[in-house]
Amino acid sequence: MKSRTVSAIAVAALFVAARGAFAQDPAAGARVFDKCRPCHQIGEGAQNLVGPDLNDVVGRPAGSFPGFRYSDANKNSGLVWDPPTLQVYLKNPQAQLPRTQMAFPGLASDVDIADVIAYLAQFGADGAKR
What we know:
The protein is mostly helical. It has a single domain, classed as Orthogonal Bundle (Cytochrome Bc1 Complex, Chain D, domain 2). The protein has helices at residues 2-22, 26-32, 72-75, 83-91, 93-96, 110-121. Helix 1 (2-22) runs parallel beside helix 6 (110-121) and helix 4 (83-91) packs across helix 6. It is globular. Mean pLDDT is 86; it is low at 1-20.
């Protein structure tokens, strides 16, 4: 019985780890994005706030949204906001991009990060969901 319990726990741990690596739940990401809303907008009618409009951000070169004043660190980073780069950045923005103006400390959960990336990826340049 004890080995069965240990096996069940191991399987559950693997499931949680796999979900973190492969999760993509845009609905859950919309809830996580509430942490981003004080500085960023997304969707139809989105505008720059403290941070840039995030429409069509997945795949966009860093520091390139028209009309937003980026830090030199962001503009000159050479980063492209693809899912692997966003995964690292959203975990700890300052570590990924030192001297960025983004004061957000990051998201602790890999699941939350994957979900918010899936949420962001839904929006085209015009703010409509794809």
